[in-house]
Every structure is written in structure tokens, then in C-alpha cells.
Specification:
By secondary structure, this protein is mostly helical. The chain contains 19 helices and no strands. Helix 3 runs parallel beside helix 8 and helix 3 runs antiparallel to helix 9. It is globular and about 70 Å long.
Length: 455
């Protein structure tokens, strides 16, 4: 796409359109700074087509593999199968989240002063993919308690590198994809990636896991996930052309940046309430590891049934992402977050109250749609608060805050499930979702509207 193409009239023009921050616009009294910003903006638009394709392929292939690991189907059921304990299922989910508590801050401090982010992205992304390979190998070569311990360790390390990767790749998107194009990019890459993942999940359940292909169907599934995510990272490395920002903060020590957290949260009056909503809704994820276990316990656990539930969950991701992306580009992503939370509450209630196969399939479809909307909304809104220089650390704060709550909640969910049953877990989850929804309605304003008002 040429630099001569004008961004949509309904959105701010360069440079705020690409940086995602009106506060990044230099003063007219500083022509040299304005010239640097204009050069940065020209680079973004000149290389948009190439960077758009690279981010699309990375998201489509990478997220396909990660969905197979993170979807509340294969991994929770696998951990339950090898451990026989709901508490261990919750512990596995918690350890993955614990890994992502501190690493986003390290990721942010590693890149916020660098002109190029891609080298760090390759390291963080590559090491995350190594853990998926480790999961496949552990299934083939270990058994009993050794397998359980290995999977817990690998999920923890997976969380570590995924936490850092979230900051790095979020910053990369903010640098190379203009604000007015991010929703549709995420819509199409998530939709096509979700379609591939949905089909692959059904195939994996019916033809890989159920017949126990090569002696361990789950390991084959994890190996396929590792292959897809690696291909996505390779595509991004080949295609991405990254601009050098005109302004960068100085290199800072980890502990100094942690001390800056209160000031960073206060720097944008809308960010604090948004962070509160993130933490409240993340607590509700205590129920996520138990969706498939609860559903399959009433239908008879088999690889084919698990594949169908994964198909419903990931298929909803495919269908809904186009809606979420285009709706977010048109209205801002607060509305996407609002609808997602309402859908999440409704789907959990269906799973809790109705037990027919059709109702369970519908519930998983709703859960998949709500989760994809929630992720797209929160990951995009976080780029629209504050200014560009603070963006890496702001992403890190949100990732760490989510990590803290989501590391505690699955353990509590497992303990509650063992003591009181799955309905109690789902009821508590719905309660926190309702509180988060109320906070969103009353406290959080659309950041894009505030940004446009300042431009």
C-alpha cells in the first residue's frame, strides 16, 4: 500500500493512526520532531502490505497451534487423564499463568529502548515453541508421575515465554499496523486460523487421539501445534519490515520500571478502570479448565466427543472474529468487550443448566466466540491508552495483572471442584463476570473516542 493512500476520514491521520496514541503527535513548534514522525509514518504506510501479510500469516499459523494448546479441551482433559485430579488440572493452568506474571515486565524492559523489536520476538517466540515440542516428547518417553511433573514444568515455562511474547508481538503490531487496520487484520487472521484449528481439532480428536496414533495421540497433536506455530514465526521473520521510532525511552532497570507502575496506571485516567475489568474477568477463568471435563462427563469421554467440542469452540472463534474485528474498527473495542462478556455469561449458564448434546455444543460455541472477542478487545484496547513510549510497559502491566489473578483462580477452581463440584465453580465464575461487566459499563469509556477528541 502506498504512502499516498489516505487513512479513513473517520479516524485520526498520521502519525496518531499508526502509533495508536494521539499524545505521540509532536508539537508544531518542533518541526524537526514533526519531520521524524512524518518519516516514521511514511515507512509504516509504504510497508503496510508486506507487514500486513506477515502479521496475517504469523497470526493464522501461530495462533492455530497455540489454540490447540490453550483451548479448554485437549490440554485440561490430558492433564486430568494422566493425573486423575481436578486440583492438578487447576495447578497446571495456574503454573502456566504464574509463568506469565513477571516475564512481561522483563520483556518490556528488554525492548522499550530498542529501535528494533523483531530480534527479541524471535528469541521469545522460539523458546515458547520449544516448550510445545517438549510436551510432545514427554508424552512419548515419560509416564506416571514423571509425565505429570514434566508437563507441569513445561506449562510453566510455556507461560514464561508466552508472557514475554505477548508484550513483544503486541508492540510489533502497534509499530507496523495502523490503528484503523488492526481490527480487520485480527479478524481475518483469527478467522482463518480458527478455521484451520477447528478442522484440525476435529481431525485430532477422531483420527489422532482416539486411535492413539503412533502410540500417543496427544503427543502427535502437540507436535502438529509446534510445527504450525514455527511456520508462522518464520513467515513473520521473512516478511516484516520494522520502522525505527523517532523517540525511545532510555534503558531502565527492572526494579525502576516496577516502581513506575503506579504512575503509568495514572498517566491515562481510563487505563486504571480497564485494568480492573481485566482482573475481574480473569478471575472468572477459574472455570475454563473444567468446561470440557464437565461436559464430557455427561456424554462419555472419548476422543471423538472431545474433537467435536473443540470444533464448536474453535469454529466459533472462526465465525465470530470477522464480526469482532470489523465491529471494533467501526465503533472501538469497548463494545466488543461488552458483548463478549454477556455472551460468556450466557454460555456458561447454558453449560451449567442444560445437559443435552445440542446445548453443550451451543455452550462451547458461545464460549469460543466470547473468548475470542475478549482477547481481541483487550489486546487492542491496551494499545490505545497512554502514549507510544509507554506502550510496552503498559502491555506488561496488564499481562502481569492478568497473570496474578489467573494463576490463583484455577487452583481455587480445582479445590472448589473437588470439594463442591463443577456447578459451584461455574457459579463463582459467572459472579465475577457479572461484576466485571458492571465495572465495564460504569467505569470504562471507549479510549478511541477520547483519543479522537484530543486530535
Amino acid at each position: 500500500m502506498s504512502r499516498d493512500e489516505t487513512p479513513p476520514e473517520s479516524l485520526p491521520v498520521a502519525p496518531s493512526d499508526s502509533s495508536g496514541s494521539a499524545s505521540a503527535i509532536p508539537s508544531q513548534a518542533d518541526p524537526e520532531a514533526a519531520a521524524r514522525e512524518a518519516e516514521y509514518e511514511a515507512f509504516v504506510w509504504d510497508n503496510l502490505k508486506r507487514n500486513y501479510i506477515g502479521n496475517y500469516l504469523h497470526g493464522m499459523l501461530g495462533m492455530t497451534g497455540f489454540r490447540l494448546i490453550n483451548a479448554p479441551t485437549f490440554m485440561p482433559v490430558y492433564i486430568h487423564m494422566i493425573s486423575g485430579s481436578n486440583t492438578i488440572v487447576g495447578l497446571a493452568q495456574a503454573l502456566q499463568q504464574v509463568g506469565g506474571i513477571i516475564s512481561p515486565i522483563f520483556g518490556a524492559t528488554a525492548i522499550e529502548h530498542r529501535k528494533k523489536v523483531m530480534p527479541a520476538a524471535l528469541w521469545m517466540g522460539g523458546l515458547g515453541r520449544v516448550q510445545i515440542v517438549g510436551m510432545a516428547l514427554a508424552g512419548w518417553f515419560l509416564q506416571g508421575q514423571s509425565l505429570v511433573y514434566a508437563m507441569l514444568a513445561l506449562l510453566f515455562l510455556f507461560g514464561v515465554f508466552m508472557g514475554a511474547q505477548r508484550v513483544v508481538f503486541g508492540m510489533l503490531m502497534a509499530k507496523v499496523i495502523p490503528l484503523s487496520r488492526r481490527g480487520r487484520l485480527q479478524a481475518w487472521r483469527n478467522a482463518t486460523g480458527g478455521l484451520i484449528a477447528a478442522v484440525l481439532a476435529w481431525v485430532a480428536g477422531k483420527y489422532i487421539i482416539e486411535p492413539d496414533m503412533f502410540g500417543h495421540g496427544y503427543s502427535v497433536t502437540f507436535a502438529l501445534a509446534a510445527l504450525l506455530t514455527t511456520l508462522g514465526l518464520w513467515a513473520l521473520q521473512v516478511l516484516l519490515r520494522e520502522p525505527e521510532p523517532p523517540n525511545l525511552p532510555p534503558k531502565a532497570r527492572f526494579r525502576d520500571r516496577v516502581r513506575d507502575f503506579p504512575a503509568l496506571i495514572r498517566s491515562d485516567p481510563g487505563y486504571g478502570p480497564f485494568l480492573l475489568v481485566q482482573m475481574l474477568t480473569t478471575v472468572s477463568r477459574m472455570a475454563v479448565p473444567f468446561y470440557a471435563i464437565y461436559a464430557t462427563s455427561s456424554t462419555g469421554l472419548s476422543g471423538a466427543v472431545l474433537g467435536l467440542l473443540a470444533l464448536a469452540y474453535l469454529g466459533a472463534d472462526t465465525v465470530s472474529n470477522l464480526l469482532w474485528g470489523y465491529l471494533g474498527d467501526r465503533t472501538g473495542f469497548r463494545l466488543v468487550l461488552l458483548i463478549s462478556l454477556i455472551t460468556w455469561i450466557g454460555a456458561t449458564a447454558i453449560l451449567l443448566v442444560l445437559h443435552s448434546p445440542v446445548a453443550i455444543f451451543l455452550a462451547f460455541f458461545g464460549l469460543g466466540a466470547s473468548q475470542s472477542g475478549y482477547m481481541m478487545a483487550t489486546q487492542t484496547m491496551i494499545l490505545e491508552f497512554g502514549n507510544r513510549e509507554e506502550m510496552p510497559m503498559r502491555i506488561a502491566i496488564s499481562s502481569s495483572a492478568e497473570g496474578i489473578t489467573s494463576s490463583i483462580s484455577p487452583i481455587l477452581g480445582g479445590l472448589v471442584a473437588d470439594a463442591f463440584g463443577y456447578p459451584a465453580v461455574f457459579g463463582i465464575s459467572i459472579g465475577f463476570l457479572v461484576i466485571g461487566l458492571v465495572a465495564l459499563v460504569l467505569l470504562v469509556k471507549e479510549p478511541r473516542h477520547r483519543k479522537l477528541a484530543r486530535v
